[in-house]
Fold this sequence. Notes:
418 residues; mainly alpha; 6 strands; binds NADPH dihydro-nicotinamide-adenine-dinucleotide phosphate; 16 helices; two-stranded antiparallel ribbon; globular; binds ligand LPDX5YLU
Amino acid sequence: MAPLQGSRAPTEFGGPLGAAALMLLLPATMFHLLLVARSGSARLLGPPPYLPGLEALWSPWALLLCLTWIGLQAALYLLPARKVAEGQELKDKSRLRYPINGFQALVLTALLLGLGMSAGLPLGALSEMLLPLAFAATLIAFIFSLLLYLKSLVVPAFALAPGGNSGNPIYDFFLGRELNPRICSFDFKYFCELRPGLIGWVLINLALMMQEAELRGSPSLAMWLVNGFQLLYVGDALWHEEAVLTTMDIIRDGFGFMLAFGDLAWVPFTYSLQAQFLLYHPQPLGLPMALVICLINAVGYYIFRGANSQKNTFRKNPSDPRVADLETISTATGRQLLVSGWWGMVRHPNYLGDLIMALAWSLPCGVSHLLPYFYLLYFTALLVHREARDEQQCLQKYGLAWHEYCRRVPYRIMPYIY
Ligand SMILES: NC(=O)C1=CN([C@@H]2O[C@H](COP(=O)(O)OP(=O)(O)OC[C@H]3O[C@@H](n4cnc5c(N)ncnc54)[C@H](OP(=O)(O)O)[C@@H]3O)[C@@H](O)[C@H]2O)C=CC1
Ligand SMILES: CC(C)CCC[C@@H](C)[C@H]1CC=C2C3=C(CC[C@@]21C)[C@@]1(C)CC[C@H](O)C(C)(C)[C@@H]1CC3
């Protein structure tokens, strides 16, 4: 049985108190956004238009729908994969294996949906159920995290995450004790990170677009852009699914409430905020402005994809001709750090690209409201915090070589600014 008191790594997110506050604050924020998006004034910083009673939140149908959705995605995850990838080496020197069939799951979901819609499935009606669906997803995330916590109490110590094993049950419940909870080969964290929430996000976007078409005759240009940009982002994540195996969420963070709620509830219901806003607050958008916004998204995507692919190619095979000419610094671990190309511009060029895309997702909503810019604000805070966490880990891993990298590439995310 794993000890309750673990490695005593320094706590993050403000320790147990911060974790407890976040567990209340994050769901509260999500419901606030859902309520405000459909209110006339759509004021991000004002009070919610009303406080929903339990009858507006709880619906057994919504719970059934959420469970069916997760079940469908789990079934697609279990289908034969075109490739099985190995994860990073674990404490016991073993490597886990992961199916690479996320894009296949997206395509099959789209086919099933197409079939359903041609048989009369009223997808637009989903937009009327967002509140009970979000409540059901939160409930599922909470119960799921509790089961994950209980499971973590009976696994050997080497299976625990370095950070979520402080001995404080609230903190560990939030951050996640077990690093890679699995039943047989089914990896819960990997599954949740990319499937039900991410594909659910584009499904909700599509439902909002269908509803707009029903209300106004056809979807607006702004709605097309938001749907297109975010579908590109999700499709890209699933196409490059293997890259998620080197993110800190998979390598370092345990699977607890933060990721379970983040993946299953936060992503689908808050990342679709721009489309929610547009359904209730139609915005005029001319073709020239739409083209400028497409250009901004393309620039963001170019940087995001270029930086992520450059690092992934380099980590897989430093002598690959696409990266072999780049300048590097050697580290005591034997690994090298790129100091030219994208990674010589700033220390997190992928975050910069992601943030530029976030701006492009909000601009179609106009500038009359702050609400559609919530994602950009939240995401800036998330990435600044994430960058600091990653910096700390790289400093620990690479020591002097990391100092040298910081000297050569002084800016973190935004050249000459941050
Ligand atoms: N939409 C969303 O909600 C979110 C999106 N993201 C996106 O996910 C993607 C992945 O982000 P994330 O996992 O945070 O981190 P990164 O992909 O930026 O990976 C950081 C790691 O890269 C390696 N690295 C850092 N500098 C260099 C260098 N100069 N040369 C070679 N390797 C280097 C280090 O690991 P090592 O040396 O061990 O390889 C470091 O720990 C990003 O594009 C981010 O924008 C992230 C969070 C949320
Ligand atoms: C609820 C809290 C505020 C914190 C939750 C954070 C999570 C929502 C994010 C943590 C890392 C994520 C990643 C993606 C989605 C959001 C979460 C889960 C990602 C799958 C999005 C698509 C990208 O292409 C990616 C690189 C695959 C992302 C990986 C990290």
